[in-house]
């Protein structure tokens, strides 16, 4: 997407809370602001527009938004021309937009996940009327194409392939705030990735809440495996990733395609959420632990050396010590490379929030600590197993603290730090792993 250069109208500051979807939404908001003539700043105090791209998946993210909104009141008092906007998942929840308006009168723009492409209109409206703009669209079928996107510079980019989620896991707010599944047309995805590759991006992550239900609505059929096959043909593209995939919909065809496509990386992020069949059922996950383990076996057989990561939750309502033991057991059996671990918390409007047998906070805390300790031990062991291997590392850039130390990723998505010159940035180079740590690997360039 071409971004036109205008005279600077002012500066904007965007703060993102949440997942890659929210991060990518912020690139779309930034793209629109740049096209309007605004430039980015990293300093809130010099901004003319401050936008908060919010998340409501967990209570902690939500509380951070309320805290920041409170603190911004002072900034608005000092600079009444400052525009403060809140968008994304939080205002998309029922009545939350209205309550933000009431609780934080210094907020000027409030909009949801379905209308982020309307930002320029909201800003003009606000500048004309000086009245708070509150507009949250209900579920939308529209797939708006060709919105300007301001990508983070570098070699990695996100590309949305589908919006929404139809799964309704009983703990999760996402289907209520992101709407029903809608898949982008393959030709639009191909075009976007070809343009990104032409601009030097090499490592593309396809985004969706459940990428393997991509294309379910298409006639003639064209599913996620077909999409990967098509994207694998794009010349100049080095690596293709995707997130998140649901274990229930991970077909044999998909494993075959991943195994046979040279650009699709050997990294599987397969959220397990819980190890007990009883809890999985109450979560409405649609698989049993046996089916999940069977899937892992198939992946390990067809894609040797693949890394496997996950999301796991503790303290779902009714989770007993035995259920939690099943979670620890599955973590030991799969031996994940790494895991995002969460403490269950109630999300208003979801079925699990109404369950009576909520787990006490102190038990949740004990369980999460035990889970993290176990997973950290396994992550470290797995990274140590790689010592001595030579890995193909796609070099991203210098590390924050030392320009001579470079950081890059393996195909399995492990971060590797090694010494090398800036001429290596953007290239895939061989690096011998010298030490495995909890969250990264040390290496030696051996080109
Ligand atoms: N679509 C993705 C993930 C969406 S949310 C998937 O299905 O895997 C990211 C993670 O947040 C989830 O995998 C889950 O582990 C966690 N999460 C979602 N709702 C939660 C809640 N109410 N409490 C705690 N963690 C939650
Ligand atoms: Fe939420 Fe489940 Fe959909 Fe993931 S698949 S977004 S956890 S409802």
List keywords for this structure.
13 helices, OB fold (Dihydrolipoamide Acetyltransferase, E2P), binds S-adenosyl-L-homocysteine, binds iron/sulfur cluster, alpha/beta, 3 domains, pyruvate-formate lyase- activating enzyme, six-stranded parallel beta sheet, Rossmann fold, 447 residues, globular
Q: What does this entry show, briefly?
A:
This protein has helices at residues 20-36, 59-78, 89-92, 96-103, 119-129, 174-178, 186-198, 224-231, 252-260, 277-283, 289-302, 321-334, 361-385, and strands at 10-16, 38-40, 49-54, 83-88, 109-111, 133-135, 156-160, 162-163, 182-183, 203-207, 239-243, 267-269, 307-314, 338-343, 390-398, 405-409, 415-419, 428-436, 441-445. With 447 residues, it is an alpha/beta fold.
- The CATH topology annotation of the largest domain reads as pyruvate-formate lyase- activating enzyme
* Proportion in helices: 25-40%
- Enumerate the spans where pLDDT stays under 50 for 5 or more consecutive residues: none
Mean pLDDT: 94
Structural class: alpha/beta
Q: How many beta-strand runs?
A: 19
């Amino acid at each position: 997407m071409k971004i036109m250069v205008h005279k600077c109208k002012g500066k904007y500051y965007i703060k993102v809370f949440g997942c890659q979807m929210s991060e990518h939404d912020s690139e779309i908001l930034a793209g629109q602001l740049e096209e309007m003539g605004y430039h980015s700043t990293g300093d809130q105090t010099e901004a003319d527009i401050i936008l908060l791209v919010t998340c409501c998946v967990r209570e902690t993210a939500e509380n951070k938004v309320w805290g920041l909104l409170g603190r911004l009141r002072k900034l608005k008092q000092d600079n009444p021309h400052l525009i403060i906007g809140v968008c994304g998942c939080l205002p998309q929840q029922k009545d939350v937009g209205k309550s933000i308006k009431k609780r934080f009168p210094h907020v000027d723009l409030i909009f949801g996940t379905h209308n982020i492409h309307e930002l320029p209109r909201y800003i003009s409206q606000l500048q004309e009327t000086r009245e708070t703009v509150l507009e949250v669209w209900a579920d939308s079928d529209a797939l708006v194409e060709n919105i300007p996107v301001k990508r983070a510079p570098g070699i990695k980019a996100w590309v949305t392939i589908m919006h929404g989620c139809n799964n309704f896991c009983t703990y999760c707010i996402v289907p209520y705030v992101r709407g029903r599944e809608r898949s982008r047309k393959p030709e639009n995805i191909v075009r976007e990735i070809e343009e990104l590759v032409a601009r030097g991006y090499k490592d593309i992550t396809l985004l969706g809440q459940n990428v393997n239900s991509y294309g379910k609505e298409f006639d003639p059929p064209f599913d996620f495996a077909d999409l990967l096959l098509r994207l694998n043909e794009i010349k100049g593209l080095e690596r293709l990733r995707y997130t998140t995939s649901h274990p229930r919909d991970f077909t044999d065809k998909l494993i075959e395609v991943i195994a046979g496509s040279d650009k699709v990386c050997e990294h599987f992020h397969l959220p397990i959420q819980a190890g007990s069949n009883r809890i999985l059922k109450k979560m409405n996950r649609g698989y049993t632990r046996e089916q999940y383990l069977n899937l892992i076996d198939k992946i390990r057989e067809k894609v040797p050396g693949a890394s496997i990561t996950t999301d796991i939750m503790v303290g779902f309502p009714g989770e007993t010590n035995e259920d939690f033991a099943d979670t620890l057991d599955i973590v030991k059996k799969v031996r994940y490379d790494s895991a995002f671990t969460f403490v269950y918390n109630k999300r208003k409007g979801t079925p699990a929030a109404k369950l009576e047998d909520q787990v006490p906070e102190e038990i949740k805390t004990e369980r999460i600590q035990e889970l993290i300790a176990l997973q950290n031990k396994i992550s470290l062991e797995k990274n140590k197993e790689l010592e001595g291997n030579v890995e193909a590392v796609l070099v991203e850039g210098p590390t924050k603290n030392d320009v001579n130390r470079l950081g890059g990723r393996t195909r399995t998505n492990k971060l590797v730090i090694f010494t090398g010159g800036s001429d290596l940035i953007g290239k895939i180079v061989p690096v011998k792993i010298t030490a495995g740590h909890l969250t990264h690997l040390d290496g030696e360039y051996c080109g």
